[in-house]
Design brief:
0% strand
Length: 88
């Protein structure tokens, strides 16, 4: 199932441009780094910024996978409850 979720996420990302969440992530990173840039050499700042983006977007992908699994479990639970009521 993990491979299927990853495939769905990758296909979604290939077809979509940046969405509201991506812009919110970008703004959050900019806000966090606002005062750091002036204290670091440009290369160090870029490395720090890039690592933050990597972590943020990895978290976004993991969040998608968790939400997907939760949605599948919730849907299955609803079907099981519906079948139980129909049998009664």
């Amino acid at each position: 199932m993990e491979d299927l979720i990853k495939e769905i996420y990758d296909n979604k990302m290939k077809k979509s441009k940046w969405n509201r969440i991506d812009y919110e992530i970008e703004k959050e990173i900019r806000d966090l780094l606002q005062h750091v840039e002036e204290h670091l050499p440009p290369k160090e700042y870029e490395k720090c910024r890039d690592k933050m983006y990597q972590a943020a977007f990895a978290g976004k992908e993991k969040g998608f996978a968790e939400g997907f699994r939760y949605g599948v479990r919730l849907t299955a639970e609803c079907f099981i409850q519906k079948e139980g009521r129909e049998e009664s």
